[in-house]
Amino acid sequence: MTTTETDSEETREGHSTYWYETDTGAVHGSSHLLAGQAELTDLNERVREAVSDTDAVPSALHPISSLYDSVGFNPDGDLVVEFDAGQVAPADAGRVHAVLPRDEAETLLSDLGLRVRDAATTGVREFSIDEAPEADKDGSVPAAPGVLAPRDDSVDCSAPDTTCVALTYDDGPGGRTPELLDALAAHDAKATFFVTGLPVREHPWVVRRTYAEGHEVANHTLDHPNLTELSAGGVRENLEATQALVHRETGYTMDLMRPPYGATDGTVAEVTAELGLAQILWSVDTNDWRDRKAKVVRERALDGASDGAIILMHDIHPTTIDASIDVIRELDERGYSMVTVSQLLGTTEPGRTYVDGVPEEAPEESPSDTE
Ligand code: ZN
Predict the structure, then answer these.
(1) CA separation for the pair 277, 240 (Å, rounded)
(2) Is 314 a catalytic residue?
């Protein structure tokens, strides 16, 4: 499938490959050719090596399904991965592809992948088109390799012996965000990044990495206006543009937003509800944008950390990156689980405003409950 997408900056052409099963009518995205996330990660490593003598940039390559959305086989059964122009290399380098020899690809393939390879190498003379199967009633999409959720069951913040804190970073990505991602990875910590449209355009591969490493990406508008000064249409445009930019890089549809300056009102609540976005404020403000001293930011973050806290920082300031490297290490030593906002809050309600995820007191048992 070829798609053309035009915005105020450019026109992009995208190529995706879907695989169709003639006997069941089922359609599969390309990442379903891989056996699982581990195999997709393995493939991504091999592709990084395979394209090392091209214009492709290794840091643009991450094991996510929106990047591995066009995978197939050549007539020898070698696995062929193709990327759109501008996706993993400068746009003027054109489309980039990598070939993994048949025997190397063998162990990475799912059952579907093996069948697709057989079909691709033997050819199919004739087939009929079956009715598409009915979608699952709950509308859920079956998990595919490279589709990552910002909430999983690896941490249960409601468990009494678990103390969770959500580190949140606004206005980025910035030039040193990759260092912050390194520090989070070193401590198996997760964070939430409320990204703004122009930095996403500037650092698209950092957004891709952020998503690929299991952090939550959330919406902080296109150009950081005070949303209470805009019409409903203006609020919608500002949020939708960033939804589209992040979706293009990651395939992910964000369901959290943070209004710039924490400024919200009834109109913002209505529009965010329509767009499926919960409004996330904070319980701890480090004021790191004003006080550019790593020591001060570090102390405020550590003093404010408590079970259920949402801590506000900005990853565009070098002092915040320096502070965060210490904060993450220290919180890890103190036994905190650093989680995404969605891990902290669980399912959120679009339009509603949240300031923290402090666990609610268990209601007192009334005598009638014990009968
Ligand atoms: Zn901001």
Answers:
(1) 11
(2) yes
- A 10 A CB-CB count for 168 gives 25
Residues of the chain with CATH 3.20.20.370: 164-354
10-residue mean pLDDT profile of the chain (371 residues): values are 85 91 87 96 96 90 96 96 93 92 97 94 77 60 80 86 97 97 97 97 95 97 98 98 95 97 98 98 97 97 96 98 98 97 95 90 53 40
357 half-sphere exposure, CB direction, 13 A CA radius: 27
Q: Which of 28, 32, 84, 170 is catalytic?
A: 170
Q: What is the pTM assigned to this prediction?
A: 0.91
* Alpha-carbon radius of gyration of the chain: 23
Distance, CA of 303 to CA of 284 (rounded, Å):
9
**72, two tokens:** 């197939």
As residues whose CB is below 5 A from the ion ligand 1, the structure lists 170-171, 260
Architecture of domain 2-120 in this structure: Alpha-Beta Complex (3.90)
**Ranges of CATH 3.90.640.20 domains, the chain:** 2-120
Closest CA to 149 of 41, 68, 254: 254
